[in-house]
Amino acid sequence: MKMSQKHQKKDKEKKEETTTEQKPKDEKKKKDMDEILDEIDEVLEENAEEFVKNFVQKGGE
């Protein structure tokens, strides 16, 4: 079933609005995620062996 050009134009406009509104949120999420990953990297650089040992499964777990 084909959509009329009027409906297609409205859908496209809605997508553009959502995309424009979403950008600042996405950028903040990306920045937050980068900060978390940087923190994890720092911990691993200092305590890699200890960090890994905490995730090693012991018998019966």
UniProtKB/TrEMBL annotation:
Pathway: Protein degradation; proteasomal Pup-dependent pathway
Biased composition (Basic and acidic residues): 10-33
UniProt xrefs under Pfam families: Pup
Top-rank taxon, per record: Bacteria
UniProt-listed InterPro entries: Ubiquitin-like_Pup
GO biological process per UniProt: modification-dependent protein catabolic process; proteasomal protein catabolic process; protein pupylation
Name of the featured protein: Prokaryotic ubiquitin-like protein Pup
The species this protein was found in: Candidatus Azambacteria bacterium GW2011_GWA2_45_90
